[in-house]
Write a structure and sequence with these properties.
Chains A, B: Pfam families: HTH_1 (PF00126), LysR_substrate (PF03466). The structure is a homodimer of 269-residue chains. Chain A has 269 residues and is of the alpha+beta class. The first copy, chain A, is built from nine helices and ten strands. In chain A, 41% of the residues lie in helices and 21% in strands. The relative contact order of chain A is 0.13. At the A-B interface, helix 1, helix 4 and strand 8 of A face helix 1, helix 4 and helix 7 of B. Chain A binds a DNA duplex (30 and 30 nucleotides) through helix 3.
Chain lengths: 269, 269
Amino acid sequence: MDLDLRKLRYFATVAEHRHFGRAAERLFIAQPVLSRQIKSFEQELGCKLLIRTTRSVELTAAGQQLYEEAQQILPSIAAAVRRVHDADQGVQRLAIAFSPGLYVADAIREFTSRHADVEIDLIPTRWWEPDRPLRDGRAQIAYLRRQFDESGLHIVPIGQDPRFACMPAAHPLAARQELSMADLDGERMLDVPNRRTSSIEEKFELIASGHGIALVPLSVARSYSRPDLAHLPVTDAPGIETCLAVATDRHDRVLRGFLETATAILRRG
Amino acid sequence: MDLDLRKLRYFATVAEHRHFGRAAERLFIAQPVLSRQIKSFEQELGCKLLIRTTRSVELTAAGQQLYEEAQQILPSIAAAVRRVHDADQGVQRLAIAFSPGLYVADAIREFTSRHADVEIDLIPTRWWEPDRPLRDGRAQIAYLRRQFDESGLHIVPIGQDPRFACMPAAHPLAARQELSMADLDGERMLDVPNRRTSSIEEKFELIASGHGIALVPLSVARSYSRPDLAHLPVTDAPGIETCLAVATDRHDRVLRGFLETATAILRRG
DNA sequence: CAGATCCATACCGTGAAGGTATCAATTGCC
DNA sequence: GGCAATTGATACCTTCACGGTATGGATCTG
């Protein structure tokens, strides 16, 4: 019924070396023991894993699949045990779910500088279900763009993320204090990432070299400031609403601390 | 050294019930056995997991952490074993990595209808490292926007995804059959999709409420059609290059089949 | 054909897991 | 306060899985 992790490790070593003798040596056990363990493992699983001749060891389809699974499972178990030991040493932990569209680096940097003892787990989510890790308990906080008000979640709007126009410092508009969307009419706007740029850095390269102007959220503008680029607030651009969702059943010190930090970040602008 | 999954299951059951007797009953073992196994488990891990009095059972911090880990580990192991059994029954499997910005549903639907015997694993990636699952063996195929030519990956451009202008249905241009980039001069263009700024849904909200026009790939236009939006092909807009990356070390029938399907999809338009 | 290589089998000792019987401690009732 | 009930821990026994050594059978090599 339970998968035996020791046997899984034995199997993974044999699969890696394709050789019982060398695998046994690596595992610090005698070769006959390894043969017997693998055989027993195959019986427990109910399927053959290895095709052995006296001169070669090959993987069956099931064996190949199990080998790939083992390469996921074994390190993840080791990491889990490490986290348990950390918790035993008093390390607090906060798992934050975020969709790729949301910029969380500032809040996390600020939070970790204040709470150096708290370990952060970043859990990437699929953008169409940003609340999933929250619901299945894998995260305590989730970043969302729009407002979910589904049951069991507590939504905390942490502010409008204002948008900035990013342009070359030499651009005529760069002398202004702020802009409106009307000022940008007729400007060449970069719809990135496009065929030439996919990284945000390349985007700023393009802007700096005069290929156009882009609208970016405050947090991006702040973290990519360079002397040859100007960022101007666009007063009437629709802000991007960012929310934090927290599960209703947990309200500890760490969680409250992060909410405060995240809110403060956006407020400060 | 190896975590004992049986003991982990025992512990998880005790943690769930907070009661040795009932947990033992659920596990179909005698209560003293359970007590001894938990004690042994704590010694193996090197930390206390439970605070027991004769009338109550509580979790320590380490115990709480381990309980959460167990809720991830145990189902994932069961799923892994299922996949191994599937593989043993001849079920082929294909893991596809994709960043949220890339639309893969059409290709997958088409592929599964042709290869009903192949199980698809969808692996969401962080957009800044879309090739990660490929490199660590968790996926056989990765969707990318731009051309990575890093070592060990084989890049297959599967075509230009033509771009459509998305605008309110009431917009003057919406009556046209097709557009050129010149027609869009002076229009307010929305700087999305930008993985750092906005969800797709929000983008279409903005467009519908008259805040601008956006260029979107065909696949996105097709899957987000709504009555108040119009999508018109832009004949001279540079297409968005979509690539598939495959690990160089695997070239089986299933993988080749998917490449063909994905290419055909984009060709058909 | 002889020797080397390599995996499998046979057999043995140790220890962990499961069982039953019972103890010790706390709670609750009278 | 004392007694019964509840609950987890301990003691002791049996079985079986895991480790070891010795050896067999098959295949490749010179």
